[in-house]
Specification:
Blueprint lengths: L2 H9 L15 H13 L1 H4 L1 H9 L4 H10 L7 H8 L4 H14 L2 H17 L4 H16 L7 H8 L6 H27 L3 H12 L14 H13 L3 E2 L2 E2 L1 H17 L1 H7 L3 H17 L7 H6 L1
Antiparallel strand pairs: 1-2
């Protein structure tokens, strides 16, 4: 799959615009959503994707190996446990293939150079620094206990350019929240397929539309929907009030996991969100991130 195939499948705006899902307006969620397009330039942008592909990687194994590389060269089982929300067999195979194609140093460098190039096209050094500096300062002081992807990423050298520092800051926020979300999922006792189906229905996807991208087969989606229907959480392919309450609690727990970051940013958070939203809007206009607002909300 070439990058142009990725653009056609995910990035080009649909003929009929997709309505944005109703999301909580918490500080943690607003920060996460404002930074999501910036954080993901290491795989969604053309400069990064084409550099990763030049190493012999496809889009998905480049994404998996690129994120996992912050941990060093972990085993497939460790990657499955750390990522959490993908079907284990799929993720283990994709990681094993990706990590066999190029070195850790090469995939990390390809992502950094590509993401930095992409961001430098849409944000000035001063504007990038106005977001990156307070974020990196707040992130540096956070406890990383139980947050392997956040801790591994924070241990890497910080890029020198303002655009690179902005990308790294946004990635760190993303991994910090992702580690917290996985902890909330584990504490809930819900399995991978259940979490994915609850999330896709919460955001307005049809059953399987999003969870299939996480490796859930059609059979698994059907059986999961049936189980959730029996529990009273799903009816006619949509969340019931009870099912929405379960997914809302996952969101609340995930937000709680970011409270230390929200507190560290204090009254600077609103300005950071506004500035990051402007950069993210420029990335969408540049066709460097998917236009589906549900995809932006889901990660």
């Amino acid at each position: 799959m070439t990058y142009d195939d990725i653009v056609a499948a995910f990035i080009e705006p649909p003929a009929t615009p997709i309505a944005a899902p109703p999301l909580p307006a918490t500080s943690a969620r607003r920060l996460r959503d404002a930074l999501e397009p910036i954080a993901t330039q290491g795989w969604w942008s053309r400069p990064a994707a084409e550099r990763v592909q030049a190493l012999g990687l496809g889009f998905f194994d480049g994404y998996v190996w690129g994120r996992a590389a912050s941990l060093g060269t972990p085993s497939p089982a460790t990657v499955v446990a750390t990522f959490g929300v993908f079907a284990p067999e799929l993720l283990a195979a994709v990681y094993a293939h990706g990590s066999s194609q190029c070195s850790r140093e090469d995939v990390l460098a390809a992502r950094e150079v590509g993401a930095t190039e992409s961001l430098s096209r849409v944000v000035s050094p001063d504007d990038a620094d106005a977001i990156a500096t307070p974020l990196l300062g707040a992130l540096a002081g956070l406890d990383a206990t139980g947050r392997p992807l956040f801790a591994g990423l924070r241990a890497l050298p910080t890029p020198e350019s303002a655009a690179g520092r902005l990308w790294r800051a946004a990635e760190l926020v993303r991994e910090h929240r992702g580690d917290g979300h996985l902890a909330a999922c584990v504490a809930s006792g819900l399995d991978v397929a259940t979490v994915n189906v609850l999330t896709e229905l919460w955001l307005g996807f049809a059953p399987g539309e999003y969870s299939s991208t996480r490796g859930c087969s059609a059979e698994v989606v059907v059986s999961t929907v049936e189980r959730l229907t029996d529990r009273g959480w799903v009816a006619d392919g949509a969340l019931t009030a009870a099912g929405r309450a379960v997914r809302d609690e996952l969101e609340t727990a995930t937000d709680r996991s970011q409270q230390a970051l929200v507190d560290a940013l204090g009254d600077r958070l609103d300005e950071i969100v506004d500035r990051a939203d402007a950069v993210s809007a420029a990335l969408l206009a540049a066709r460097s991130f998917p236009h589906d607002p549900r995809k932006r909300a889901a990660g």
